[in-house]
Specification:
Layout: H1 2-18, H2 22-30, H3 40-50, H4 57-63, H5 67-75, H6 80-89, H7 100-123
Helix pairs in contact: 4-5, 5-7, 6-7
Length: about 140
């Protein structure tokens, strides 16, 4: 019985530990940080308050014509947390322990990469590029 309860508790804690960035994880391991239990209702309200305003960034990214333009827009974002919020606001799957570069790549591919692929598909010559001769 105890083993089952402990196993369930560890599975419940795992997402919180995975959400920590490297600095937070190092502090926890060294004893300079601690995990705190907060009931789910309260944690949702806190998350909503702490989410930074992403402003016009998603609209600016949507107007980018190529990946380099999008990367230029993302370089203006100073914090990883703000980049995380931008990705989440655009419904792009990221997790807090993703590296900044990985988050940027996901955002660029979601916005510009998808647009470029879609455009390439639309411009394909669906009838083929060769002209067939009927010379018998």
């Amino acid at each position: 019985m105890l083993k089952s309860t402990l196993s369930k508790a560890l599975r419940a804690i795992l997402p919180a530990v995975e959400a920590l960035d490297q600095r937070e994880l190092d502090a926890l391991i060294s004893g300079k940080g601690k995990l705190v239990f907060v009931e789910k209702e309260k944690s949702q309200k806190i998350t909503e308050i702490e989410t930074p305003d992403v402003g016009p960034i998603p609209e600016r990214l949507d107007k980018c014509k190529n990946r380099e333009e999008a990367r230029s827009v993302l370089r203006e974002i100073t914090s990883k947390e703000a980049l995380f919020s931008i990705a989440r606001s655009m419904k792009i799957h990221v997790v807090k322990n993703d590296r900044r570069q990985d988050m940027e790549n996901k955002i660029v591919e979601f916005t510009v990469g998808a647009k470029l692929r879609s455009e390439a598909i639309r411009t394909l010559n669906m009838t083929g590029s060769r002209v067939r001769s009927h010379d018998g």
